[in-house]
Design goal:
mainly alpha, single chain
Length: 351
């Protein structure tokens, strides 16, 4: 995600190393805390703890650390996250991916289309937002948060200020979702006893904003939900490329002379995730090696969570403004309620 800052980050290997070390220190502390029985009994996993500790540091000490650590924190939040998602494939097999199957694709597609259409309607008819703002918030809410916003920006040629506002909204509600979805699971399992953890994981992956947030929420719910959530989310991320192509064609239709000459950025890490999961399905590596890789992957994902927390500030509420914030709130409610209805309907018809 983009970050507005009053300081120009330092360049060179030292700030890169400092930011990575800071992220690793927070991640290590979160992993240690998550392994304590008293903390684990509360349902707080390492990834959730990493973003909480990161946010505490980010809203207190970060202004003094930002200049020295920003490059490394950005790397942890972006590149280490993608590497962590790719390595997450070692936790999955092709059979688990097949279990999500066609119904998962249909759920993701319906959620994406309905959420983006609602964003366009709300932004124009209810909140009077400009096209770039409503498209950016719609893309972030319907696909994969800040990554979708940053990928959409060159296609629609949006101002950097609008990009920052859109990112602020999806970070705020995506972060809330990390805590809300695990809390909803006991209620959902009680009211709808036929819903399995895998199905709730698909709901989580098909409706939450960021990949990292999906991993954290799924991790707090349980292994089955986490695996299904990540698979559903990665299928949704892979829809980013056709979505951007659709926007490009739409802009060219409305403004033939206009703005959409930028290239399409395809999320290759999503494909690599699938390739690694397929490789893992062959069981070619020793169990001990796979276990070591999974431990490394937990550290990488916790570092990404810590970095996301470090750059999530309460001041984002002020930057977002009232109208974009309310629009994002309604989309967030739709993702939970409407996305839940889509999941129930599709799973009933195709389950």
């Amino acid at each position: 995600m983009a970050e507005l800052t009053l300081f120009k980050p330092q360049s060179g290997p030292a700030p890169l190393a400092a930011g990575l070390l800071l992220s690793a220190a927070i991640a290590g502390a979160a992993i240690w805390l998550g392994n304590q029985p008293s903390v684990a009994s509360l349902g707080l996993g390492a990834l959730t703890l990493a973003i909480v500790v990161g946010m505490l540091v980010g809203n207190t000490l970060w202004p003094r650390l930002q200049r020295a650590c920003d490059p490394g924190v950005v790397m942890a939040k972006q590149r280490l996250l993608r590497l962590g998602i790719v390595l997450y494939g070692f936790r999955l097999t092709f059979q688990q991916i097949a279990d999500v199957g066609l119904s998962g694709i249909v759920i993701d597609l319906l959620t994406l289309c309905s959420t983006f259409a609602l964003a366009c309607w709300l932004g124009r008819r209810v909140f009077g937002l400009d096209r770039e703002t409503r498209w950016l918030i719609g893309a972030g809410s319907s696909i994969c948060g800040a990554a979708a916003i940053l990928a959409t920006e060159p296609v629609i040629k949006a101002d950097s200020a609008k990009v920052a506002v859109a990112i602020a909204t999806v970070v705020i509600f995506g972060t809330l979702a990390i805590f809300i979805y695990p809390l909803l699971w006991p209620l959902v399992s009680t009211l709808l006893p036929g819903i399995t953890a895998t199905q709730y994981g698909i709901f989580t992956g098909s409706t939450m904003h960021e990949v990292a947030q999906v991993v954290a929420a799924g991790h707090a719910i349980g292994p089955e939900a986490e695996n299904a959530a990540v698979i559903a989310k990665m299928l949704r991320v892979m829809m980013l490329a056709p979505f951007l192509l659709f926007l490009t064609l739409l802009i060219r239709r409305d403004a033939p002379a206009g703005m959409a000459q930028g290239g399409i950025r395809f999320p290759w890490f999503a494909l690599l995730f699938i390739v690694v999961a397929l490789f893992n399905s062959l069981h070619l590596l020793p169990v001990s090696m796979v276990s070591t890789i999974n431990q490394l992957d937990t550290l990488l994902l916790a570092m990404a969570m810590a970095a996301l927390g470090l750059t999530t500030h309460l001041s984002a509420l002020k930057r977002a403004g009232i109208r974009p914030l309310f629009m994002a709130l309604l989309l967030f409610i739709w993702l939970i309620v409407g996305g839940g209805m889509i999941n129930l309907g599709v799973q009933h018809l195709m389950g």
